[in-house]
Amino acid sequence: MGIDIWEVIEAAKTKPFGFQAFYPGPGLGGHCIPIDRFYLTWKAREYDFATRSIELAGEISTAMPDYVISKVVKALNNVGKHVKGAKILILGLAYKANVDDDRESPSYRLMEKLEEMGARVEYNDPYIPVIKKTHEFSLLQEENQFLSVTNTTSYLLRLPTTHTEQSTSNHSVSL
């Protein structure tokens, strides 16, 4: 359809009736939305309410890391590179900008998937200098393979947790 999502969000932000901009990202994080929707669906079924829209939103959100990976693969292929052997820097580990809360962060799934595909992945998040021990991402902690980066990396994966200007660098992959 040729609709620029950023133009839509910018236009909607100008409305005087309390619109708050939410930007698309690589999935859902935090505790509320990814977890509590299951409780809401369960409770609604007790009252014979259909919750297909909640379930569909959950399916789409759960699939977002795979969608982001497909965009990374395509972007690298467009410049004649492969994921295997690529050095990728993920900016932002928290599930939203300017917080140190990484609960249910889709960045972990992206990091694991890219690593499984043979990429060398590093991250940088000033609010999360070290990955916390959790039960879900034991691979990340056991091998301690994802360290906060201090040197340059070949490819930058800037996650759209906040709207940023498009980079003009040939080594930046903005999704």
Report on this model:
By secondary structure, the protein is α/β, with parallel strands linked by helices. It has one domain (20-174): Rossmann fold (3-Layer(aba) Sandwich). The protein is built from 5 helices and 4 strands. The protein has a 4-stranded parallel β-sheet with strand order 2-1-3-4, with helices on one face. α4 (106-116) links the parallel β1 and β2 (120-124). α3 (52-78) packs across α4. The longest helix has 27 residues, at 52-78. It is globular and about 50 Å long. The protein starts with a helix and ends with a strand.
Number of folding domains? 1
CATH structural fold name: Rossmann fold
Query: How much is the average pLDDT?
Result: 75
Structural class: alpha/beta
For the largest beta-sheet, the strand count, sense and barrel status come to: 4 strands, parallel
Spatial arrangement of strands, main beta sheet = 2-1-3-4
Quaternary structure state of the chains depicted: single chain
In terms of DSSP E residues, the strand content is 5-15%
Roughly what percent helix? 25-40%
Can you count the beta strands?
A: 4
Low-confidence stretches: 141-154, 160-175
CATH C-level name: Alpha Beta
User: What is the approximate shape?
Assistant: globular
What's the CATH H-level superfamily name? NAD(P)-binding Rossmann-like Domain
